[in-house]
Design a protein that fits this description.
This protein is α+β, with helices and mostly antiparallel strands. Helix content is about 20%, strand content about 30%. The chain has one domain: SH3 type barrels (Roll), CATH 2.30.30.220. The chain has two helices and nine strands, in the order αβαββββββββ. The chain has a six-stranded mixed sheet with strand order 8-2-1-6-7-9, with helices on one face. Strands 3-4-5 form a three-stranded antiparallel sheet. The longest helix is centred in the first third of the chain and has 23 residues. It is globular. The two termini are about 25 Å apart. Pfam families: SspB. This is Stringent starvation protein B.
Length: about 160
């Protein structure tokens, strides 16, 4: 008997990734509807800056050419959630900026207040390396990182070519 699973004709990895990104959309939609974050909740959202549909100021793309993490906590405005993504106003070094981020560009979502995190399959460069990233440093307090183990869902499917 072979240890290898047969190739699937159903794209399960893509379906799971899409469903988990819908969690991000629903959470942000509830924050939009409520007009703010409940309790101590706040979010770190990591996304690919060069992904299709991402619209952020040029100086942020230059500083974060691959991936960046934003903080949705105290200083954000005009959160608008759509079926395919969201837009939000944030301040970077006291300079306001509008960011438009499709859910397909999101690679991570963390709510440190309740130790919840989702990680999505990262895009791999042509050389096979996953590029690093730096936290954006928008004008919001830094929270404690999520501890390993509890309430973390990590999905990393490898695709056979």
């Amino acid at each position: 008997m072979s240890d290898q699973a047969p190739d699937s004709l159903i794209p399960y990895d893509e379906i799971v990734q899409e469903a988990l990104r819908a969690v991000v959309g629903r959470v942000l939609g509830e924050v939009e509807s409520a007009g703010g974050l409940p309790g101590e909740h706040h979010f770190y959202i990591t996304f690919k800056t060069g992904a299709p549909g991402v619209d952020i100021p040029r100086h942020l793309v230059e500083r974060f050419p691959d991936e960046m993490t934003i903080v949705i906590q105290n200083r954000f405005w005009d959160l608008k959630v759509k079926p395919d993504g969201f837009e939000v106003g944030l301040s970077f070094n006291q300079v306001p900026a509008k960011l438009i981020i499709p859910f397909g560009a999101v690679t991570g979502f963390v709510d440190p207040a309740v130790n919840f995190a989702l990680q999505f399959q990262a895009q791999i460069d042509d050389d096979g390396e996953e590029p690093g990233h730096e936290t954006a440093g928008n004008d919001a307090p830094i929270a404690t990182p999520v501890e390993d183990g509890s309430n973390v869902v990590s999905i990393d499917f490898t695709r056979k070519k």
